[in-house]
């Protein structure tokens, strides 16, 4: 199989993967979250490990277990993920940001549980979270480092999935962006995936449909290829 131990093309490489969905607290029992299962990021971490890499996984509320041999750093919020990524980015050859990170968090976290009486919570004021990917892509600390982002996109009035993805690839500064079409029935959870790889100049490389393992190995194949051609 393509995932056999004969294919150790990431031996000697350090790989950092983010996965899962961050949670932003509202009060002691409530949070703003998203539907990410963490499966795609965990599949990437597992595939990189099988291919010989030393893998660190920064996981936010993963719904699947971390395979043996992978160093898991659990986090909850985007700010915690940011701190963990900044700590590990300088020692990582390859960074793959598969996590669904909350763009905003509540400005005030209530110290006690909000009640539904007249004093209850009807509005939540939000403030922007740090953009972790943009931060590490613009402040690179390691020569030759390869950074891959993910973009969960839906088509809308202002553009198609691919159009949004190409614009994001050019904006975010990651070397590669894996564009993933999401809806309530695709992309998240235990369903096959279609992803399209785009470079930071907006060049569309290729698309792959398959299981999250197929997608993981396809992304790693492209990463290995780019690292070998970059020198
Ligand atoms: N990301 C990040 N930090 C954030 C938000 C996103 O590191 N605060 C990363 C994600 O892990 C993903 C990539 O950026 O790899 C793209 O995330 P996405 O939500 O698709 O892009 P945004 O730039 O947040 O744009 P928007 O949500 O407006 O589409
Ligand atoms: Ca976002």
From TrEMBL:
User: What GO molecular function annotations does the UniProt record carry, in alphabetical order?
Assistant: FMN binding; metal ion binding; phosphopantothenate--cysteine ligase activity; phosphopantothenoylcysteine decarboxylase activity
Q: Which residues form the DNA/pantothenate metabolism flavoprotein C-terminal domain?
A: 10-225
Q: Record's GO cellular component, any one?
A: phosphopantothenoylcysteine decarboxylase complex
Which amino acid positions bind CTP, per UniProt? 103, 113, 130-133, 150, 168, 172
Note whether Metal-binding occurs among the keywords.
yes
What biological process terms from GO does the record include? Answer: coenzyme A biosynthetic process; pantothenate catabolic process
The entry's keywords: Decarboxylase, Flavoprotein, FMN, Ligase, Lyase, Magnesium, Metal-binding, Multifunctional enzyme
Q: What is its pathway?
A: Cofactor biosynthesis; coenzyme A biosynthesis; CoA from (R)-pantothenate: step 3/5; Cofactor biosynthesis; coenzyme A biosynthesis; CoA from (R)-pantothenate: step 2/5
| Cofactor binding, note field | Binds 1 FMN per subunit.
Which cofactors are required for activity?
Mg(2+); FMN
Please list the reactions this protein catalyses. (R)-4'-phosphopantothenate + L-cysteine + CTP = N-[(R)-4-phosphopantothenoyl]-L-cysteine + CMP + diphosphate + H(+); N-[(R)-4-phosphopantothenoyl]-L-cysteine + H(+) = (R)-4'-phosphopantetheine + CO2
Write out the ranges of the annotated region (Phosphopantothenate--cysteine ligase). 15-231
**What are its E.C. numbers?**
4.1.1.36, 6.3.2.5
UniProt function note:
Catalyzes two sequential steps in the biosynthesis of coenzyme A. In the first step cysteine is conjugated to 4'-phosphopantothenate to form 4-phosphopantothenoylcysteine. In the second step the latter compound is decarboxylated to form 4'-phosphopantotheine.
Q: Which family does it belong to?
A: In the C-terminal section; belongs to the PPC synthetase family.
What protein name applies here? Answer: Coenzyme A biosynthesis bifunctional protein CoaBC
Native source organism of the sequence: Jonesia denitrificans (strain ATCC 14870 / DSM 20603 / BCRC 15368 / CIP 55.134 / JCM 11481 / NBRC 15587 / NCTC 10816 / Prevot 55134) (Listeria denitrificans)
